[in-house]
Design a protein that fits this description.
305 residues, mainly alpha, Serine Threonine Protein Phosphatase 5, Tetratricopeptide repeat, 8 helices, 73% helix, rod-shaped
């Protein structure tokens, strides 16, 4: 009985030892697994950190590339803007030169017309001063192609040809009006033209207004009124230009500037956006003055051949 109990005790002790060993082995395996899990987590975290760092670098590079591209675009736009600004300055310079040439052409043309008018006035004055008493009218006018002051009228039968005399000699002192100084009159007119040529339009208007006030009966008065309107147009006072040119048409309907004044009215109306009124005025120019330069321009603008 004691032997059996001893065997049973040994077996029980062996089982306990086996159980303790197995338990110890299980605990050892769990510890290794935990260490591996911790190590794996650390590796994953490190990989995550590396990936995040790489992504950050890529994003930074992308932002830098976008900034560089944007900077390049800005530089391109700046270069294009500088090129366009240069072209604009060139066009403005060409426009100013064209306007100056146009003003010089106007002044030159006006000077030539003024000389022709003066020759005609001088020829008529010379003929009026040589009209014999009781002849019933003036002698025939000399041709305008030559020098009217040197073209003496033919002698009347029974009388010797009298020398040319100034206009004042043909008027009695009792009825003669004060005669303006022709040189001063011309200087006053030219002063207005000089202001216009220099683009001093306000001074040009004032100078021509003074000229008309001082020399209301001058053959240049209608031209002075035209240049008032033209100066106002150049200063972009279109309504003032229209009013000035209409004043010319009312006071000097037979002026050789009438067609140009009417054309200037049409241009001013177009600048104001009054298209129908401008077309009507152009039609009036083309109808009233078909053989003038203004009439030709009016037909061109209307599309009429």
């Amino acid at each position: 009985m004691r032997a059996k109990a001893l065997v049973r005790s040994l077996i029980a002790a062996g089982c306990v030892a086996s159980f303790i060993h197995a338990a110890h082995a299980g605990l050892f395996d769990d510890e290794e697994a935990r260490k591996q899990i911790v190590q794996l987590r650390n590796q994953v975290a490190e990989q995550q950190r590396v990936i995040d760092q790489r992504l950050g670098e890529l994003e930074a590079q992308a932002r830098n590339r976008s900034i560089i591209d944007l900077f390049n675009q800005v530089e391109t736009l700046r270069s294009e803007f500088a090129r366009l600004r240069g072209q604009l300055e060139l066009l403005q310079n060409e426009l100013e030169n064209a306007q100056k040439r146009q003003r010089d052409l106007y002044v030159d043309l006006d000077g030539r017309l003024r000389k022709i008018e003066q020759q005609q006035e001088a020829a008529r004055a010379a003929l009026a001063s040589q009209t014999p008493p009781g002849s019933g009218g003036p002698l025939p006018q000399p041709p305008l192609s030559g020098d009217p002051l040197r073209s003496a009228p033919p002698a009347v039968a029974g009388q010797a040809a009298a020398p040319l005399q100034p206009i004042a000699s043909a008027v009695s002192p009792a009825t003669s009006a004060p005669v303006a100084d022709p040189a001063q009159e011309q200087r006053s007119y030219d002063q207005g033209l000089e202001h216009f040529r220099a683009a001093r339009y306000s001074e040009s208007v004032t100078a021509f207004q003074i000229f008309i006030r001082n020399y209301p009966r001058s053959p240049l008065a209608s031209s002075a009124q035209y240049w008032i309107g033209n100066s106002l147009y150049a200063a972009r006072d279109f309504r003032g230009a229209i009013a000035a040119q209409r004043q010319l048409l009312a006071q000097y309907p037979d002026s050789n500037k009438a067609s140009d004044a009417l054309l200037n009215i049409a241009t001013s109306q177009a600048e104001l956006g009054e298209i129908q009124a401008a077309r009507g005025t152009l039609q009036e120019v083309a109808t009233k003055y078909p053989n003038t330069e203004a009439g030709v321009k009016a037909r061109q603008r209307l599309g009429i051949r």
